[in-house]
Amino acid sequence: MKIAKLLIPGRFENAFAYMGRLITVTEDRAMQIYNLESIANFIETKYSVTLPTPTYMFSRNDWFSSPQFKTLMQNEAIAKDLYAAFDRFPQPFLDWTEISHLDSKISRPELQKPLAINDTAILDMSVYNNRIYIGTTDSLLHLDVEIPQGATAKVQEPQKRLEVGCVNIAVKYGAANASCGSDGLFTLINDFSWRPEVVRRTEHIESGSLRTGWLDYGFVNYPALNEPYLFKFQSEKARQNSNLERESRVLTEVNLDAESFTDYLPGNVKESDFVDNTQYSYNSNNSFFVRTNAGKFYSYKIKKSRDASTSILPNSIPEKSISRIVSVNPTKVGPVIETSNRIVILSNETGQLEVLHDGRAIAIKTFPQSKRFQHLVAITIDEGVLLVSLFDEAAFTTPNGANGFSNNSHQYADLRF
Predict the structure, then answer these.
(1) Of 179-193, 197-211, 272-286, where does mean pLDDT reach its minimum?
(2) Which CA distances in Å does 134 have to 9, 139, 209?
(3) Is the pTM of this model over 0.85?
């Protein structure tokens, strides 16, 4: 796997890549927005031997999936030259200040704006449909942002949405899930009025929540890291006005009859066994991950049949021994796993672990719903924001391309306690 890292030095609390920008919040409560396209272009002028790596890795991840790129990679000579360009990118990372001082304009953020947020700490941040959601120790807020093409971004003043601390924010289908610990799970329904006839409202869904994970027909709530519960929802066709996320549906109602997600696991695993023997569990839209107390890590595929029933199937990924998990975040090339002392990625193609950062993180963000940043990881550390971009060449060298496990060389993992 080819890995390129760019450090934006500073004292930050969180960072999020969105529409060609890196949106950050500093420790002194200022919002700083960086233009990643301009940064990538500037790197290429100073490190021309790395062309076209900076643009692909830090600005246009979507080009990796284009038919033109796939055709080019079939040419062995072109592929070899591209891999060499990746290898010439500065290692272990490029410190942005090493070259940004050469241009006074590029060295400054595109926008720097003080924020009227006096809460103790910022715990999470997400950006969706030009709205920045911020969860703090005391509240949930949002700020609307304008990111025009070829012009400077603008940010509105914060609006308070909840008066309780918010540890995790998950936004999709025109709705925002705010996980507020022992204060529960709140869902902001029809938050962008994509269905004008549906009341825009906030509902208290559950009494406890550390985070949620979206599916295409519901979401999984985690009142504890080893207790996943499925909530299904009703949706209607989204009106396209101001729908920058290209969502086809908008959530209009949540079914409050939760189902234990462990009921769908293979092997008739009892819920009590799962809770007693699982240290961490997590879902993305189509995958479910489990780390047992014995240190084993498993991955499952989530499938929904035509009759709306759910099944969770073992994924053809080798059993892994991983230290205690703090978080899991999906990317196009595999899940990014945060442990107590390092951050690694598990390749979808090879099943191998690669170290992204040795040490702890303040915050980690990936962007599976993004058009441009599905290969990017934003890791906020004491030194700044470490942008880690990932290109798995195995996707272009393994049989059947998109699935490196197609050779059946790995055994199916089963959840055994």
Answers:
(1) 272-286
(2) 22, 8, 17
(3) yes
